[in-house]
Specification:
single chain, 7-stranded mixed beta sheet
């Protein structure tokens, strides 16, 4: 079998040069866009047969999915996304299900939320769900194992056939979104295969499908089955009908025929090129990207033996957010996580995109000129900020009335303001940063924000920009913020933040907001509600504030040790 990609496939794609983020979203093909447009236009000119004609797109998509899965349409149902299918399955499983805690959240939340099966959490080495790791986790009570075909962080490709051999007659639930269409897996060993179409299939959002084996159809109870999943669905006789046979019984309602048409065409394009050819082309691009990473001293932290389409890497002495900012500045799109950068090319990724990425990496690793190195290394982060303090007043004066300039020292959180000129937000030296900036710093997202719209404490609309200041190693040590009265300026992107006058106010605002988001009064909260409040506050950087645990314990009417337990559970899961 040839692995050559047909030109009729490649001409369908024209994503921007520098795009390396198909593991997050795959820009649809020209054919998918044209199909969606044509079907939408047909719906706009609706006539007697329009609805029936549009609904035929569902069969087209099912047929294409069945062919690629080596199944048939009686075992396929369409979905708007992966999560819907996994929730349906989780509600149908009883007994014990084995799931890795390191899975993408769409694979963990359904099992925990559904509450039908007892969840046995795996914590495999590196997060890789191997047959041996599954074997160790199985118990006599285990009825199902849920796994991603490809690990979203590292691209590790699970050995589905090996896992099937280990679990025997138990149900095998597979999330195929990070691999379907680009790796040729034995999908038929899965009892349930759930695939979203917005990533590697490049079908756009609200597209997806689920394939159920005979074993799954026999054992699982389709609790989330709607009127379209009933026998004689078109017979309106004031009665609730039994569930239909096969995968049709898992239908909840009619999905968008426009989305079905897009999915059908996307799957047919995969058939046109061939999964092996697409996978081989992606492997070539991964090899090229890997070589560039290693040329500049980077470390590949993703799977290399059983890999799919994902390359994750780190650069020594360069935090991932710093590298991510440099990539964005040169027009390269990738997924930036606190621990690494993730690159996901596709078969349509061009040599020009690879070259752009290489140039961006070399710029990041470019040595500081010798004439300046000694000065920068000797100065340190505090001196960088000290040099800027005298310029704050001059900058505010130059920008004119209605402007405020604020300099923050990230080493002095939460009392981070070291210089301020202007009274737009009513703050002073020694005051805290905004809730927005505190959350960004907590998450390690220190990318510049420009021209966004927010509100002053008195309700005035203001325009803000924030530039992070870095030391010679690229680590953020401070930030310079400029706030302007919106009445005197143009429109801006809207981002809501608050400007507390002191740390106590910041602390109170964060807690009040997190409690309000839970939508349950404190005296009626269960553990899940209070844990969610702690999670929200942790993401917002609340626990960077001194004595925050004691303050929150009082607000939630629990002990400080309970707050620490919630934090340990939350952060332990996040690291898994």
């Amino acid at each position: 079998m040839t692995n050559r990609i047909p030109s009729s496939y490649l001409v369908q794609f024209h994503e921007p040069e520098g795009y390396l983020d198909f593991g997050r979203f795959g820009p649809p093909s020209h054919a998918v866009v044209e199909t969606s447009t044509r079907l939408l236009e047909a719906s706009a000119a609706a006539g007697p047969s329009t609805v029936d004609d549009l609904m035929r797109q569902e069969l087209r998509a099912k047929a294409a999915a069945a062919r690629l899965c080596r199944s048939d349409t009686d075992h396929v149902t369409l979905l708007p996304n992966t999560s819907t299918g996994l929730f349906q399955v989780a509600l149908g499983v009883t007994g014990e299900v084995v799931v890795s805690a390191a899975e993408f959240p769409s694979n963990t939340y359904p099992w925990q939320r559904a509450g039908r099966a007892e969840v046995r959490w795996m914590r495999p080495d590196r997060g890789w769900v191997t047959p041996s790791a599954v074997r160790e986790a199985l118990t006599p009570a285990t009825t199902a194992v849920s796994v991603s075909a490809v690990d979203f962080r590292t691209g590790y490709r699970a050995d589905l056939a090996g896992i099937r051999e280990v679990i025997g007659d138990r149900l095998l639930v597979v999330d195929g979104i990070q691999g379907f269409g680009v790796v040729d897996e034995p999908w038929e060993v899965a009892d349930v295969l759930v695939v979203g179409g917005q990533k590697w299939l490049r079908a756009g959002w609200s597209t997806g499908f689920m394939v159920l084996s005979d074993r799954a159809l026999e054992r699982l109870d389709p609790l989330m089955s709607g009127w379209t999943g009933a026998l004689d669905a078109g017979l309106f006789d004031d009665d609730v009908h039994p569930v239909a046979e096969g995968a049709a019984g898992w239908s909840i309602t009619n999905l968008s025929p426009i989305a079905a048409g897009a999915l059908g065409h996307a799957l047919e394009l995969v058939e046109l090129a061939g999964v092996q050819a697409i996978g081989a082309r992606i492997a070539t691009r991964l090899d090229e990207l890997t070589e560039l990473v290693r040329e500049v001293g980077g470390t590949v932290v993703s799977a290399e033996d059983r890999r799919a389409g994902i390359l994750a890497f780190t650069l020594p002495d360069h935090p991932a957010p710093v590298v991510g900012s440099a990539l964005v500045a040169t027009g390269v799109t990738a997924t930036v996580r606190p621990e690494h950068i993730r690159l996901t090319p596709h078969a349509s990724t061009t040599p020009e995109t690879i070259a752009r990425f290489g140039a961006a990496l070399r710029e990041v690793r470019r040595p500081v000129p010798v004439a300046h190195r000694a000065i920068e290394q000797a100065s340190g982060g505090s001196d960088v900020l000290a040099a800027l303090v005298p310029t704050v007043n001059s900058l505010a004066a130059a920008l004119g009335a209605g402007t405020e300039v604020v300099l923050h020292d990230l080493g002095s959180l939460p009392n981070s303001i070291v210089a301020i000129a202007g009274d737009l937000t009513g703050r002073e030296v020694g005051g805290p940063m905004t809730d927005l900036l505190l959350g960004l710093v907590r998450r390690g997202t220190t990318q510049d924000l420009t021209n966004y719209e927010t509100y002053a404490p008195d309700g005035r609309v203001i325009r803000s920009s924030t530039v992070f200041l870095r030391d010679s190693d690229g680590v953020a040590v401070g930030c310079l913020c400029v706030n302007s009265d919106q009445a005197a300026t143009g429109r801006a992107e809207r981002v809501v933040e608050t400007f507390p006058g002191d740390v106590d106010t910041l602390q109170r605002l964060l807690v009040e907001r997190a409690v309000a988001d839970a939508e349950v009064p404190v005296d009626l909260m269960k553990k899940t509600h209070k844990s969610q409040v702690v999670r929200v506050l942790d993401d917002a950087g609340y626990f960077l504030i001194k004595d925050s645990v004691d303050h929150l314990a009082g607000a939630l009417e629990v002990t400080r040790y309970t707050i620490y337990n919630y934090l340990n559970e939350i952060r332990g899961t996040a690291k898994a």
